[in-house]
């Protein structure tokens, strides 16, 4: 079972789904009614949505099982970390170049560099913050940290600093909804998950 962004949007807004017709719900989230109907049926058949129309609820245990099945190998976390590390390195190169132009460039170069230097420094701080949040949410999950990570990743993408794959968008969104509860509840499984992340990092960094 694999979930997409639209599935997660329905799960996040299940309270609204219970309040309005499927036609109105589809209009609110910006998709066609048949598409919403298909995804609701998919979520019900998978055991994530339980109950009847007007009284749907989310089976969090089933959602956590799917989360672990989709991301328990640690690859998504590792790819995100490597993507952030690359973005951080690129921004550091940009800052060094701008600082050099401030010191040694022509007057025009100096003006240009000064105008862009603070933006690049902010980019670097925000990328580093996203890395910290991602590592924090693995070590000690809490909803606030997951929410901040979700917002930071999508903000960095909107600013053109990283490009998230669909899988990474699903990971960030699903983590905010389901959290790392499957791992946090069992310290042995959490330890195994962290080791998978470290192993994947070693493989991908060769």
* Strand-pairing-aware structural class: mainly alpha
Helix content: over 70%
User: What is the strand tally?
Assistant: 2
Spans of at least 5 consecutive residues whose pLDDT stays below 50 are none
What is the alpha-carbon Rg in Å?
A: 21 Å
Compact overview of the structure:
The chain contains 11 helices and 2 strands. It is mainly α and about 210 residues long. β1 and β2 form a beta hairpin.
Can you offer a commentary on this structure?
With 206 residues, this protein is mainly alpha-helical. 77% of the residues lie in helices and 2% in strands. The protein contains 11 helices and 2 strands, in the order H-H-H-H-E-E-H-H-H-H-H-H-H. The chain has helices at 5-12, 14-17, 22-29, 33-45, 60-71, 75-104, 107-139, 143-158, 166-178, 181-184, 187-204; strands at residues 49-50, 57-58. A two-stranded antiparallel ribbon has the order 1-2. Strand 1 and strand 2 form a beta hairpin. The two termini are 31 Å apart.
Search tags:
206 residues; two-stranded antiparallel ribbon; mainly alpha; single chain
Write the layout of secondary structure elements.
Layout: H1 5-12, H2 14-17, H3 22-29, H4 33-45, E1 49-50, E2 57-58, H5 60-71, H6 75-104, H7 107-139, H8 143-158, H9 166-178, H10 181-184, H11 187-204
Antiparallel strand pairs: 1-2
Helix pairs in contact: 3-4, 5-9, 6-7, 6-11, 7-8, 8-9
